[in-house]
Every structure is written in structure tokens, then in C-alpha cells.
Amino acid sequence: MGIREMALMIPLLPLIGFTINIFFGKQLPKSVGSWISTLALIASFGLVVSLWGPIGAEPLGLHLTIGEWFSSSWAHISFSFHIDQLTLIMLSIITGVGSLIHLYSQGYMHDDENQNTFFAYLNLFVFFMLLLVLGSNMLVTFIGWEGVGLCSYLLIGFWYKDHENNDAARKAFIINRIGDLGFLIAIFTCLIQFNTLEYSKINELAGGGMITTGLATMITLCLFFGATGKSAQIPLYTWLPDAMAGPTPVSALIHAATMVTAGIYLVVRLSSLFVLAPISLNLIFAVGVATALIAAIIGLRQNDIKKVLAYSTVSQLGFMFAAVGAGAFSSAIFHLGTHAFFKALLFLGAGSVIHAMSGEQDIRKMGGLTKALPITHFTFLIGTLTIIGFPPFAAFFSKDEILAMAYSKSVWMFFFLALTSVLTAIYMLRLYFLTFSNSFRGTDHQASHLHESPLTITVPLVLLALASMFSGVLGLPEVISDYHWLNSFLAPAIKVQQEGHVSHFFEYCLMGVSVVALIIIFILVRKWCSGEKALQVNNGFWAKAIDNKFYIDEAYDSLITQNFARISKWTNGVLESKLVDGLVNQVSLTTLLSGQTIRRIQSGSTGVYILSMVLGIITLLVFQYLSR
Amino acid sequence: MIPLLQQISLEHYVVLACLLFSVGVTGVLIRKNAIIIFMCVELMLNAVNLLLVAFSAHHHSAGGQTFVFFIMIIAAAEVAVGLAILVMIYRNMHSVDIDKLQNLKW
């Protein structure tokens, strides 16, 4: 099998898995259907790994044209893939983490009657996600972009018998559609202005200075608006916490590791265009920092184990956008990768806890789970230490890099990001201690059911924990090692140079201070969580505001949704039923009435018919004669 | 020498055709018997045919005459259909008087 066929098989295998499961899932036994999907993805992962050798060192990457899609006299759009270093990293994350989550779902969804359908959707999601990152032009990416949105909708509402899940699914879909509008406008603008949608050509034009700042700003702002929808940034982030209504593996795969990072991928993919628009970059920077901070504050007081993780995902995505906004594109990808590992790990750990607690998600009713769930506890601890940036785990390096980059750009933004890091440590440790330490606070019934999860769940946990621990070596900072592997690996794909540089002294300070701060926070949060105060209801003004997520959902509801509903009601009541229906009814009524009147002329007497026919012909002839 | 028919001037043919056509129209309008009306229709048709042939000869073009052949064939077919309709009318109403045909209405 040649390299091209191998590259083609990567997205094709999950598609085959989807086809088998969606059409024959009901007939196949559960274990067969789910294993077909899982093996398809593992094989796909194998293919990705085998592509690292030939493509990793190839500066131009691999271009793969499958066929011409459509063309006009001035633009040719082909259905083609492009695999370069950036794509390789994304492919590895998607298929690698995806395989582990498929494996995990074997255990997690074991009792579900629609298990095969679930795996079909998962496979379809992976297919679209692969399409998104493989596409060599914006339109192929857009198919994937829409496809993952669809799968996200299907999977959030997978347990469709509960109405809240359906609402959450619709919310995610609709908010994503709002963002998609921005992406679409960017696509149209690019097509009109550049006559091409190929990333390589657009980047080339941008790099060659052929694009004016105004045009670049307009396109990049539209793209970023699309990214805020998919990657849950202000103002379109509210769907992600609600999306936790889906099964936990879905939250891990779609709403933590892969789909929500599509926005980052898109921005990094068009990095040459973005650096032409400093206004957009500054906006991205500010939005990223603001999102990171606000989501972290909301995360402080959430009591649903998955909601805390959801807000931390929003916050970490904010970190990535802050990195992009600071011009540190490969740092964003670095954090994207480490985040995929540790956030998937945390979600899967949370899923294991929920599984053991017979569906309970409120951390106030957990506690003392260390003994019953030793593997889950240990891996969750590693995940927590990773996300808060404890050395030497992965996020210590990736977050540190982003903080340093932010510092070189703006001291204020650095301050807010550092504050976010502190808040991250607080809410994650609170989550960890409330869940695992002290004594059990659930019902006796739940206590008797506590059990460690099966191997299909614990094996992915352990593997992800290892990845979270060691993936940091891919991007060791300058002060530790003079070779930043990830930056130099990505250099051919991301043509833009990372700008910011900070002194070694500052880096050492940053590391030292963060370690000391983390240890202090660790001790304080631990003490606080063992006290009574942690579980008490706080009715202070700020506590209430945070509990209610700053009333942003309510504000959107009353400002946009309600007004929209009012407009719809008006158009339905007045425009539709009065104007449109009225017009149509009038036309039919007129026809009916005139018909009833005119039909009397038809007397039925054949003689009269003949006479009128002759008279008619004579009239015609006379008219013709006269009009000569 | 010129054949006898071609010695007659075009005007005569036109007048004759008009007369025949008028006879046909009058017959259609005043007669009650459906068969007679039918015959009158045929008369009008043949008045037109005559006109076509006359003009065709006048212009030394075979087109009009060819056309007339086709009209005749069509007319034959039409007569077959028309007579069939008349037979059916007679069978149903025991009459071919068009004043008794009052059913062709809403």
C-alpha cells in the first residue's frame, strides 16, 4: 500500500465503521458492532503513526487530490487533502485519544441498548474531524466543520428520552450555526478576493504581502467569529457547559479533546493571514484572556463534576486563543495537545466516578472514593496535577510557554492569565478533594455499589495519564533544553516566527513562583475542603452571581431568544396568517366566485355554441382586417 | 394551349369559394339537423381547399396543392370520428336535432 492509499484510508476506516454500525447495528450483537468501530479507529491510528516517518521530515508535506469538486472560469475547487506537520499532530491526537475513548466507551456504554448506534456516531464524528484537519482548502474543512457539529448534536442528545438533553443538543447546534455564519462569510470573501480556497495559496499570498491589512482584518475577524462558536469562546461559549448532558466519553472526545480545538486549528492553519491583521490578533488575545478568566471564576462554584471540567475546558481554550493572539501559534498547538491528553483523562476519570456512583454527578455527595477506586483516583490526581501546571507534567511546560508569550506582549494580560492559573488550581483541587478525600457523603445504596471500573475503562485512563505526564518533553522551554522539538517540527507548517522572548531570569521566576503558589494553594484548598464550609450554601451577592454563571444564559435568553421568539410570533401571527395566507386565500376566492358567475354562460344549447363560435371567428377576422 | 380551367380568372375562384363558404356558414347556423350541419362544415372545408388550389395554380407553386391532399386525408379521418359521434348521439337520444342537445354544460 502506497503512502497515498494509506493517507486515504485514515478517514475512510471510521467511515466504514460508521456505515456498518448505522445500517447493521441493530442486527449485530453489541460487542461485535462496537469492536468493529474501535478496531477501525485503532487501525486508523496505526496508519497515522506510520505516516510520521515519510511525512514528518518532508517540508512541503503530502498533497492528495481526490478529484475536482467544481470549477468555474475563475476558480477551481478540488476535493483534496494536505498532510503536513500540523495535520500530523492533529491526526495523532484525534485518532490516538479517539481510540482510547472508543475503548473506554466499550465499558462505559456497555449497558446501553443503543450501544452500536453510539459507536456509529462516534465513528462518524471521527471521520468528519479527520476531514476537517485533512482538508487542503477551506471548503473541505467546512464539510468537516459542519459534520462534527452534527455529530456533536447527535451525541449530546444521545439519551434523547430526557428532554433536557435534547434542549442542550439544540442549543449547541444553534449556537454553532451562528458561528458558522462567520466562517461562511470568510470563505466567500476568500473565494471572491483570491479566487482560491487553498490554505497553502492563501498563506502564500499573505506571506508575499499581496493582501491588504483591511481585507485580512475582515476575513480573520469572520474566521475568529466562527472559531468562537466551535471553540466555545466569548460570546458563544454558553453551549459547552450544557453539552455535558451527553454521555461522558462524548464530553471527553468532542467537548474536550478534539472538536472544540477546531477553532484553534483553523487560526493556526491560516497563521500567515492572521499576522497581517494586528487588530484581529489583539481581539483574539483579549477574548481568549477574558474567556479564560470568566470561565475559571464560574468554575470555582460549580458542583457538577462534569460542569467543573466543562468550564475548565472553556478556560483552557481561552488560554490557547490567548497564545494565538500573542502570536505564539506553535505554543497554542502545544497546549492543544497536552490539553487533549489531560482533559480527556479528567473527563474519563469523572466518567469512571459517575459510573461507580450509579449516575451521581454532584461532588457534594461524593467524597472518600480513594479506597474504592484506586486506579481512577490515581489517574485523576495526575490529571489534576497536570492541568494546574505542576512540574514536571505536561501542562507545566505548555502553560508556562503561553504565560511567557503573554508577558512579552502585555503585562496586564499576563497578570490576568496568571490569575486564571491560580483560579484553575483552586477549582481543580476543590474538585479533586471533594470527590476523593474525606468520608463518603452519598447514600448507603450508592456506597454498597462502589466499585472500580472494568479494564476497558482503566486501561485508557492509565495510558492517558502516562501521556499527560510525559507529553511535556515535546516542548521543553529554552531554559531547560536548547532544543524545542515541537517548534522546530512545526516550523515548515507554520511559516510565522514566534516573536516574544523573555529573559531567562523571568522564566526561572515564573517557574519558581508557580510551584510555590501551587503548593500553598494545595495546602489551603485541602484544609478548606475538609472543613464544613466547603459544603455550605453561600448566599452572598458574588457567590450567587457565580452560581448563576453571571446570568449570561438568562441575559441571552431575555435579550436574544425571547425577542426572537417575539418576532417569530409576530411574523407567524401577522405576516404569515394575515398577509401570506390572506393573499393566497383571496386569489382562490376570486377564482371561485368568478367561476361561479361565468359558468352560467354555458347554457348547454349546441346551437348557441355554434353561433358564438361563428361570431367569434367573424370578430377575429374583422379585428385583423381593421388592424392591418 | 392553356387548359380550360386555367382560363378562368382567379377572381372567379375566390368568389366561388366565398359563396361556398357562406353557404356552409349559413347552413351551420340555421339548420337543426346535426348531419346537415356536419355536411355544411365539410362544405366550408372544401371552399378553403378550392381557394388553396386556385392560389397554388396562380403562383405556379405545388405547395398549396400538396397541402390540400393532406387536408383531404385529415378531413376523411375527421369525418369518420364525427360520424361515429353522431351515431352515438342518435343511439342515446334517438334524434340528431341539435335543439335537443342541451346537456353540454356545467
Account of the protein in words:
The complex is a heterodimer of chains A (628) and B (106). Chain A has helices at residues 3-24, 30-56, 85-108, 115-134, 138-156, 163-194, 199-207, 213-230, 239-242, 248-257, 262-269, 271-274, 278-299, 305-325, 329-356, 374-387, 394-409, 411-436, 444-449, 455-470, 485-490, 504-530, 541-547, 552-598, 606-626; strands at 62-71, 76-83. The longest helix of chain A has 47 residues, at 552-598. Chain A is globular, with a radius of gyration of 30 Å. Chain A has 25 helices and two strands. The mean pLDDT of chain A is 89. With 106 residues, chain B is an all-alpha fold. Chain B has a single domain (12-99), classed as Orthogonal Bundle (Helix Hairpins), CATH 1.10.287.3510. Chain B contains four helices and no strands. In chain B, α3 packs antiparallel against α4. Chain B is elongated. The mean pLDDT of chain B is 88. The A-B interface holds A 599, 602-607, 609-611, 614 and B 25, 28-29, 32, 37, 98-99, 101-106.
Q: Please tell me the overall pLDDT of chain A.
A: 89
Overall, the morphology of chain A is globular
Strand content of chain A: under 5%
Number of strands of chain B: 0
- Report the β-strand fraction of chain B as a percent range: under 5%
Radius of gyration of chain A: 30 Å
Q: Structural class of the secondary structure composition of chain A? A: mainly alpha
Give the neighbour order of strands across the main sheet of chain A. Answer: 1-2
Radius of gyration of CA atoms of chain B, rounded to a whole number: 18 Å
Number of strands of chain A: 2
Structural class of chain B: mainly alpha
H/E element order of chain A: HHEEHHHHHHHHHHHHHHHHHHHHHHH
Residue windows where pLDDT falls under 50 for at least 5 positions of chain B: none
Which regions of chain A have little confidence, pLDDT < 50, spanning 5+ residues? none
Distance between the termini of chain A: 82 Å
Measured as a percent range, the helix fraction of chain A is over 70%
Outline of chain B: elongated
Count interface residues per chain for the largest interface.
A-B, 11 and 13 residues
* Count of helical regions of chain B: 4
Helix count of chain A equals 25
H/E series of chain B: HHHH
